[in-house]
Amino acid sequence: MNMAENVKVRTEETLRVKIGEAKNLPPHSVTGSGRNTFCAILLDREEIFRTATVEKSLNPFFGEEFHGEIPRKFRYLSFYIYDKNDKALGKVSLRKRELHKYHGKEHWFSLLPVDVQSEVQGKVHLEFRFDEYLSSSPDVTYASHRMAVRVIECNDLMVINGACNPYAVVTLSYGQGRHREEVRRTNVKKKTISPLFDETFFFDLDNKGQNHDRNNYYVEDIFSGELCISVWHDESRMAREVLGSIFPGVFLGEIKISLRDLNTSGIQNAWYFLRAKNDMRQPHENVGSMRLKISYTAEQVFASQYYDDLRNVLLESPDIQPISSSAAYILGQIVDNRQEVAQPLVKVFHHHGKIVPFIKTLAIHEIKQTLDHNTLFRGNSLLTKVLDELMKLVGLPYLHFTIKPIIHQICSEHLSCEIDPARLKEGENLEVNMETLKNYIKHIFDAIMVSGLACPGIMCEVFAALKKAAQDHLPDKKEVRYQVVCGFIFLRFFAPAILGPRFFDLTTDTQDETVHRTLTLISKVIQRLGNLVSSQSWTYCPKEDYMVPVFEHFSDACHVEAVKMYLDIISSSTKKHSKQMDIEQPVVLKEGMLIKRAQGRKKFGLKNFKRRYFVLTNQTLTYSRSKDDDPLFVIPIGNILAVEKLEEQSFKMKYMFQVIQPQRTLYVQANNCVEEKEWLDILTKVSNKNKNRLKEFHPAAYLNGHWLCCKAVDQSSPGCTPVTGGLPVTEIQVDLDSDREVEKIHSLFLTHMDKMEALHDMCGILEVYSGEAVVNNTSGFQIEDSKSCFETLNEVLKCVISLEQEHLHYRKALQREMVTGSFETPIGDDSLIISNDNDTKL
Amino acid sequence: MREYKLVVLGSGGVGKSALTVQFVQGIFVEKYDPTIEDSYRKQVEVDGQQCMLEILDTAGTEQFTAMRDLYMKNGQGFLLVYSITAQSTFNDLQDLREQILRVKDTDEVPMILVGNKCDLEDERVVGKDQGAKLAQSWDCGFVETSAKAKINVNEIFFSLVRAINKKNPDTRGGKKSGKSKSSCTLL
């Protein structure tokens, strides 16, 4: 199959950059002091990101990250350090094709001075033709030589101060030392970066020689000449008039061609990359260096069917026993950078609806391997990375909905919350700070506690799976059930987001020291509050002394109960069939005496009102005669289609709400408005993710043969009013590109082929020597079952090799199709923009 | 009095806080509570000289690594801690060390390799020779410790102070050793 002809192949590029810091920037020339600087990322000449400004430093610490898809072709990735007044202090320019050298590792790069003359971009389309024609002079007729240079067009020129009025200059220099020249110029094109000139200039070659008598030599002579085509921006008529014709405008780039390199027979037509001026290769001054971590990936993604085999092998992972013999786990073993592995795996498994079983299997595996349950899921394993990535993938809208307003408030109020006496600044009052801090913590804590409802379903399912795994394998360690959930939702989600809101897109601003300190303190307390639940008692843990009063303030039964309930809500998956539900210990969420109207289970008889004791767990709503009696009626959470208030007119009673089920509706009266709201809220929370949840309901009751609200006669007529308690939009469907992710995984396997083969060999040896520990396991591979591992490896190898064959075909076909000098592949890719091959330490 | 900025680094659950709290307060923290970022000050005497130690106990959780850069930039000496009961925590240190060297932009940074939980001999998976070998290749000190049994806890902090002293002998002017001026003098 010819894949190059197949337009289905797409190239997807991603760039991830960590801008660390710069150092030894040149001091201010006048004051000699620090500067206010920021760093910008540029694709060619287009700025795609800039950091916040770091004040008064020649060693600015930026600590920012950029992550994005690259939607267009580019040649150079550059980083500019600007003084606040937009003067460029230095830059790092890297060619696209050398980016792989720095992939995923941090490096210090030397900064180079920025010179306007070196800043070029774009290309020019030219045509050259050599004519021989008969020329006659009075004495003799002889063959003359003439060169035609056609300047056709330019593309993608640089914009100077928001304008580009380009023109081209064709210069032929010749003679000894090329000191003689002939200059032609095109017309100026207004306001375009892709001017169409189509002007042809003729250069007579014959009378340029030094010896007029010998034609043959003329040509020889002239061919030592050089042609230069330069492009300029005609800045303004004003500038020209004031400065005269000496001022040519702004240089946009040039190309230089030795006439010797041109083919004299026939027409040559080609695109050329514009280059910087040649004469600035002088040793440059030292303008400092900067630390960057650059990860650039480009994937050639084929049509979907090419990925089916590898995808299937991967998706089987949760079913492989032991999991350490599965393709996904093996990938985690051979690649050191777990994040690089976790990202595509999460997307693939999530996309194909297998993320929950995958995480569950990994979790069970990890539980079995952890000796001390205190440190369960605390290491940096494939499981924890997968969960981190999943929460970032599906949880951001939820995170934003929950704490963004408060984070924003904290950042804008800019109040000091320092409670460490040793760090207290002059004029600050510890008591005042303490109150501010407590107030912030309370806000964030409350916001999280009431947000359980909004937690994305997939996260809830994962938490439920984790809880269950802990329950099954550590049945006597009750506290671990909470610990595993809060170890993710607090420790790996809320706490890091509060501490570094920019990394979770909660804000785009950088935090100064005061705000950062406030966020750190809040993050610590929130983490601790989450952790309280898993401990038997909330005794003070002897860490920093000054934190004790804050912890004590929040460490009471009330907060612990709130956390417990929150954790229960986000870790109950109500949509699961009842068989699984039974295993899960029901957790009481709310209970109390209420008055309910008979549901009409009997065809006849009065529908009276009775006092009943209601109990809501994460699984059912039940009522009984009194607290200790057996339930009279059980409503599984899954049967709750909606929970809504009931209009007072229905029964002329206040505080009534209705629990709508498939066959009937339960009408309940609470004792007061507060209680009513509590029941409404908690019932909505537990039932909100039911798939069969109603969209409409009847706000009043069905009495005397019709609905009081809409007068409809049919008791089964659909509701007339939209349900309330509409979920905030925190579950945004992420559009995932499974093929692309599998391609990423393919390339991970491919780049770690050596390790895969080593593992393969080791499994083979273990198999032959029937598992005897003869293998010196220096690689740190974990092989539980050599046979199944060996088999999986064989399959993966087969898929990867066959997929790579396709890549090879495609690359060859591309190469065949590539024409140097075409619009896509202009001549002169090795531009003279000074590149940074000389980064200091590699 | 000379000030020392020490940073305790390592994966989650290796006992960074247990070591730090044991050293600073002489208590073993029974209850496990993952750290976000804690800092302590303690005045000690090392080789007859009074020192003020500012110890930063960091998060082992990878979600907080965005902050690591700053710790590394500001820290003068590092304790790289693993647990002798978990191989992965040992393997994780290589990256940490590399990151420190990158951030500091030098090959000589005072650090001590620490194998914690040496009281759990039965559960040991990282051999003492493995630790010693790694420390040798890094050209740094190596100590196995137990925060619980209070083995070698003070030693690691003292060794780190000595390592800092060795690299940057105290210039007896009482100059504040904060700003990283030294890294500029490389070229």
From TrEMBL, chain A:
PH domain location is: 587-688
GO biological process assignments: intracellular signal transduction
Query: Where in this chain does the record put each C2 domain?
Result: 1-121, 128-272
Q: Which domain of life is it from?
A: Eukaryota
Q: Where does the Ras-GAP domain lie?
A: 337-531
Instruction: Tell me one Pfam family matched here.
Output: PH
GO MF, any single term: zinc ion binding
Q: What InterPro entries does its record include? A: C2_dom, C2_domain_sf, PH-like_dom_sf, PH_domain, Ras_GTPase, RasGAP_CS, RasGAP_dom, Rho_GTPase_activation_prot
Q: Which UniProt keywords apply?
A: GTPase activation, Metal-binding, Repeat, Zinc, Zinc-finger
Q: What is this protein called?
A: Ras GTPase-activating protein 3
Q: Which organism is it from?
A: Potamilus streckersoni
Automatic annotation (TrEMBL), chain B:
Q: List, alphabetically, the GO terms of the cellular component aspect.
A: membrane
Question: What is the catalytic activity of this protein?
Answer: GTP + H2O = GDP + phosphate + H(+)
Check the record and name the Pfam families matching this protein: Ras
Kindly report, in one word, the top-level EC class recorded for this enzyme.
hydrolase
The GO biological-process annotations, alphabetized, read as: Rap protein signal transduction
Q: Which SUPFAM superfamilies match?
A: P-loop containing nucleoside triphosphate hydrolases (SSF52540)
Keywords in alphabetical order, please. GTP-binding, Hydrolase, Nucleotide-binding
Q: Which residues cross the membrane?
A: none
The protein's Enzyme Commission number? 3.6.5.2
Provide a Gene Ontology MF annotation, just one. GTP binding
Annotated region Disordered: the residues are 168-187
UniProt-listed SMART domains: RAB, RAN, RAS, RHO
By what name is this protein known? Answer: small monomeric GTPase
Q: Which organism is it from?
A: Potamilus streckersoni
Top-down, what is the taxonomic lineage of the species of origin?
Answer: Eukaryota, Metazoa, Spiralia, Lophotrochozoa, Mollusca
